[in-house]
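Sequence in, structure out. Go.
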Amino acid sequence: IYPMEITVIRTPVKGKPTMGKMLIDGEFFCYTLEDEDRGIIQGMSLKRVKELKKYGETCIGYGTYKVALSESFKFKRVLPLIKEVTGFEGIRIHKGNNESHTLGCILVGYGIEGFTITHSTKAEFDLIKRLESEKNIILRIRKE
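Output:
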């Protein structure tokens, strides 16, 4: 069985939240917003990640991750969990509009206004619907 593939294509701007696009199996799904890109790449040592990371202000590294739907204790609902992210814990994909709504997580929305995303609740709902029957999900994060 082939995995469902989520791709996040980032457009980083130094000192700003990281905007991007999310594709599912190669087709545009929604926009994304993450914390600032500080140059972390999957496979870096924990020591190096800690040197680059500012808690609550840094997006996860570029790379490929496994994703599983699970109950979030913080949000009290089922959300996609990004697994085995060096130097980060509890990284999810969820609704939110600006960088104050993410602690390293990937926010989803259907519209963009500057460095915010809009129609986020609908995007999260639709994403969960798309993923709920999938057992094998991978996330690839790359630059535009």
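Check: The beta strands are 4-11, 18-24, 27-34, 63-72, 77-82, 93-95, 106-109, 111-113, 116-118, 137-143. The chain has two helices and ten strands.
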